Amino acid sequence: MAVNTEPTSRERVRRAALKLFATKGFHGTGIRDVAQEARLSSASLYHYMGTKEELLAGLMREALERLLAAASAAVAGVDDPVERLRRLVALHVTTHARQPDETRVVDNEVRALSPRTRRAVVRLRDDYERLWAEAIDDGVRSGAFATDHPAVTRLALLEMCNGVARWYSPRGAVPLDRLAEHYAGLALRALGHTESLARAERP
Amino acid sequence: MAVNTEPTSRERVRRAALKLFATKGFHGTGIRDVAQEARLSSASLYHYMGTKEELLAGLMREALERLLAAASAAVAGVDDPVERLRRLVALHVTTHARQPDETRVVDNEVRALSPRTRRAVVRLRDDYERLWAEAIDDGVRSGAFATDHPAVTRLALLEMCNGVARWYSPRGAVPLDRLAEHYAGLALRALGHTESLARAERP
Amino acid sequence: MAVNTEPTSRERVRRAALKLFATKGFHGTGIRDVAQEARLSSASLYHYMGTKEELLAGLMREALERLLAAASAAVAGVDDPVERLRRLVALHVTTHARQPDETRVVDNEVRALSPRTRRAVVRLRDDYERLWAEAIDDGVRSGAFATDHPAVTRLALLEMCNGVARWYSPRGAVPLDRLAEHYAGLALRALGHTESLARAERP
Amino acid sequence: MAVNTEPTSRERVRRAALKLFATKGFHGTGIRDVAQEARLSSASLYHYMGTKEELLAGLMREALERLLAAASAAVAGVDDPVERLRRLVALHVTTHARQPDETRVVDNEVRALSPRTRRAVVRLRDDYERLWAEAIDDGVRSGAFATDHPAVTRLALLEMCNGVARWYSPRGAVPLDRLAEHYAGLALRALGHTESLARAERP
DNA sequence: TATGAATGAGTGTTCATTCAT
DNA sequence: GATGAATGAACACTCATTCAT
């Protein structure tokens, strides 16, 4: 039974920062903007965060760890690389559609991190992308996929899916599960997956 | 016979801003950073620009106008929508690979513009994307393409190609002309172009 | 029993600005000058003010409102226009002698205000001057005063009295109450007030 | 026969500065404002002036010297202190009405001068005011004037006349010669001049 | 004579952050 | 917890002035 619980101050700060960093960028967002959005004084903010950069790093790490865990779970025990990729794409698209703020921050604000923090975040992102690389490489090896430059193709598909966070609206024409399927189809065909090619989309 | 001509101060400012806006973002770049990069005092900068925002807007407009002109020229007189899309993708990829700074600024810094300027820039971008939309829609109508959600697919492919600016290096394994072809192949297969599907990539 | 109370920071800012605007003018005073005089950093200043112009406007409005209130009180219920003018002159002179900074700012810095703010300040000043105009016009009507151009004369007398703020010193030869009387005499005689003419000053 | 002679650049600079210093104040006027008003580049300005402050000082000195010369000529050989004062007031008012820019700069911008230059300008002003002081003192001695504090009265009358520069318009109701007479009348009555008192103004 | 280019110092204002209460 | 007060450093931008051409 859902109770109308007011989120904690800490949570309000997190959400405020996420929203603003996503909308205006890290450098375009002032600590006072965050405070106002979280309905706190800027001094009070510092009860719930370290520096502004640590706040950003925390948000990014958290989002990436959640995505990585979800993706690992989604492909665990699945042998077929085609199915693995399908699930990875669907999860990626769904996540970018449902949490556009988190994903936009992750995708766009890495450069705002100090080198030290950046390395940690990039390592997480690399771990995540490795799941994609493994699925693609396995598919190429098994003959399910046919692509000249698997690494390039992986980057292309990741970017393609990232884009969802920039325009998806829950009020749009295509429902989210159909959207995820659509993207999976795009990806598989792009990868030269023969079965997908046969039954190319048709109204 | 190429003469070693030192670029003008005005040009140095333009290039400095482009490089820094692309690397650190508009809000992450100080006017003093630009000045230093252009080997000028920050006061001298203002001989060659209006405000910092006008500098950004000028760069974006210029890049978009050039891209739009090149794309219009590339598809002019070409009836086959498949060929049109192939050329658009190739041009887009090539441009993003060769002028990554310009394209990253165009793709990422729109939100830094004031509403008024933003409108003008977005209009240019829309004009450009319309060329993609026309090629895709024509292809769908002619039966050359098969995709359930052409508008979504267009966005997906554009984002896919934008990504090139983030990672391409001229010292990479894939030469640029091959890269452009590769992306064209990805796009056409994703669009369900039957011929492309038949001869799926294979070494 | 007077306690040695240190004025608040807000009050220190107000006084510092008043002193400096009066001495060096609004445009001749830097925000850092104000900060130094108020023993604060220039950043701290902004806890107690909006913009520099709003600081000026606030000071002017406050001074004018106080003067207007005092003048209204001074003439309230006084029927005789001669007595009214005498009181207005005495109050004006006394105020300019005691608060030379406030009055100099009010008299000299109107042009530094933005049109919008200027209008509000000028309206206050006009309200105040109307008290003078009424006294003079009533006196002319009653035959107590005789002057060809009452409006011009009003301006002349106001300027005459404003001057006090520029040179009066409490260590000067003429005590303030005598000074006020002296100016009242000058004004009444200038206005052709017959009684004042009869007993023209003589030691 | 008047020829339509375009004023020299030097003269244009002088006039531009005068106009702007009078309107916006010395510190409120930028050297680029002057340049624009004079239709020159700001660099070219420096062919016709030293520093900005020297430009101001020159304008003030010139205006004061001309006023001093005119005043000296006006009272030369006139024995009657009443007549001397009458002429001084008339000249002062006329000058402030006809050259409001010059006189406003002289009256308001002394504080913008460096101490050294200020001393020279103040000396000129003192020389000028001495003519007033002599007329008043002579009048008091001769019994033509009756005022308790001649020095104070002199300041009061000077300020009164300075005000003309702030509001006089050639399109106003009172023609300039009448205005000068009016002010002379105000001054003489304020000074307790018995004859003026007798024939107090009456329509 | 005229000016575009150039700049060190300064403008008003905002920044992220700290700390005493 | 929460915040008003405080600040050094930085922000984008303008200043008066110089100089090579």
Which structural traits does this protein have?
mainly alpha, Homeodomain-like_sf (chains A, B, C, D), 2 domains, 11 helices, HTH_TetR (chains A, B, C, D), homotetramer, Tetracycline Repressor, domain 2, 203 residues
Please describe the topology of this protein:
The structure is a homotetramer of 203-residue chains.
Chain A lengths: L8 H16 L6 H7 L4 H4 L6 H24 L5 H18 L1 H9 L6 H28 L7 H13 L1 H4 L8 H15 L3 H5 L5
Helix pairs in contact in A: 1-2, 1-6, 4-5, 4-6, 4-7, 5-6, 5-7, 5-10, 7-8
Chain B binds a DNA duplex (21 and 21 nucleotides) through helix 3.
First-last Cα distance of chain A = 42 Å
Succession of helices and strands of chain A: HHHHHHHHHHH
Structural class call of chain A reads mainly alpha
Uncertain stretches of chain A:
none
Chain pair forming the biggest interface:
A-B, 42 and 42 residues
Shape of chain A: elongated
Q: Rg of chain A from C-alpha positions?
A: 19 Å
- Level-1 CATH class name of the largest domain in chain A: Mainly Alpha
**CATH level-four homologous superfamily name of the largest domain in chain A:** Tetracycline Repressor, domain 2
